[in-house]
Amino acid sequence: MGSRSVVVIGSGIAGAATFFALARRGTDVTLVDDGAVGQATAASAGILQPWSSAIDGPFADLYVRGAAFWPEVLARLAEVGVTQTGHRRSGALVVNADPAAVDAAEERVGRRRAADPDVVGRVERIGGDRARGRFPPLATGLDALWIEGGGRVDGRTVRDALVEAGRRHGGRTVTAHAALLDDGRVRFGDRTEDPDAVVLAGGAWTNDLLGSLGVRVPVAPQRGQITHLTLPGVDTTHWPSVHPLSHHYLVAFDGSRVAVGATRETGSGFDPRVTAAGQLQVLRDALSIAPGLADATILETRVGLRPLADDTMPIVGAVPGHDGLFVATGYGAAGLTMGPLLGDALARRVLGEPVPELDALHPTTSPAAG
Ligand SMILES: Cc1cc2nc3c(=O)[nH]c(=O)nc-3n(C[C@H](O)[C@H](O)[C@H](O)COP(=O)(O)OP(=O)(O)OC[C@H]3O[C@@H](n4cnc5c(N)ncnc54)[C@H](O)[C@@H]3O)c2cc1C
After folding, report:
1. Are the C-beta atoms of residues 3 and 196 closer than 8 Å to each other?
2. 294 FRET partner, CA 20 to 30 A, in 149, 230, 233, 261?
3. Is residue 226 domain-shared with residue 294, that is, in the same domain?
4. Whose alpha carbon is nearest atom 16 of ligand 1?
5. What is this structure's pTM?
């Protein structure tokens, strides 16, 4: 039998997507968030382009399936009139000075396109000059691959869209810090509730919630700094994301905005600051591939704490030994892409359906330190 009442803790993409998926299935669901500084979703670049990734195996498969689910979740949001999502299928450019590197990326994208040609769209080797036509600040001397289906979402807008759509399906939202009690109840604000199920989607903070039970999951914060630039008078709305086959990227947004980043600071702890070294790294990387951004105005640097899992696979499912307790964390650098897919799968699992695709993501716990 499915659970009747559920509390979801955390309204980043993991919790917001689970909340929406539960609410649209008629569940009595409450979403609680404490507005912590450093929410990963609020800082995310929001790029939806998994196909050029050099990683193969289960993570890559999930990443690709996550991107393929986006049209479905957008359609479900539209069913309740939520259409402002910050999503745009603006295409992606894979660029590199070494044509052999672009060859290898073209092979990977072509292989993944064969499984889902509609989502990936047209893939074409266009060379550097045509790439600059699509993203004018790019350096000369680059080879380039165009991927029509590359997309991006604004993390803040889509998070709010999922929450609003969940509300329109009858879900409730509360702003408060939540704590799990050792008897399985959950406390937030001045309320203590005893729901049929609790979903911990606390991102990098998930182990704080599990501490009262004396267990932890293998996840830790990884700081990401990303700088937003504006190019006054330039319309960047239809510019693609740019992937130099390195650790960094550029992504344009509607208006005159380009975000460049991001740092991946493993071991950062809970320290959501803009640092001198982080700022230097993202700007140096960006200008090395797109020197035409040199005169852009710096708007802000956003900082998010990615919930990074030890073995990089997300951790999604029932917490062993704790009836009615579920976790959704460890989405690392791919949470915007995978979040809606995993939220939908977890909602089905919470409601008692067998969900084989979650088997590989089953949480393992160890005793909490101290
Ligand atoms: C700079 C940067 C760029 C990124 N770019 C991309 C990208 O291009 N594509 C992509 O797919 N992914 C990207 N990501 C990754 C993606 O943003 C994350 O994987 C994802 O946002 C994680 O979502 P989450 O919901 O697990 O965690 P968060 O978004 O961190 O949300 C967790 C929430 O839980 C709340 N919370 C925690 N504990 C409690 C408590 N006790 N009570 C109440 N509330 C609580 C927090 O306040 C927070 O709001 C990027 C991340 C960063 C930082």
Report:
1. yes
2. 149
3. yes
4. 335
5. 0.97
Kindly state if the Cβ of 340 falls inside 6 Å of ligand 1.
no
- The ranges of the chain with pLDDT < 50 are 1-2
Residue 211 lies inside a defined structural domain of this protein = yes
Which numbered atom of ligand 1 lies nearest the CA of 39? Answer: 30
Q: What is the pLDDT at residue 183?
A: 86
Q: How confident is the model at residue 1, as a pLDDT?
A: 43
What is the CATH classification number for the domain harbouring 179? 3.50.50.60
Alpha helices (H) along the chain? 13-24, 40-43, 58-79, 99-115, 117-120, 127-134, 155-168, 206-210, 276-289, 335-350
Number of domains in the chain: 2
Q: How far apart, in Å, are the Cα atoms of 47 and each of 16, 39, 50, 105, 230?
A: 18, 17, 9, 17, 18
**Domain-embedded: residue 287:** yes
Print the domain residue range for 124: 88-149+221-306
- Same domain for 227 and 127: yes
- Same domain membership, residue 290 and residue 225: yes
Cβ 331 under 6 angstroms from ligand 1: yes
Residue 360 belongs to a domain: yes
Return the pLDDT at 3.
55
Q: What one-character DSSP code corresponds to residue 141? A: S
Strand-pair partners of 242: 93, 250
Q: List pLDDT tens digits, range 2-45.
A: 458 999 999 999 999 999 999 999 999 999 999 999 999 999 99
* pLDDT at 369 (0 to 100): 72
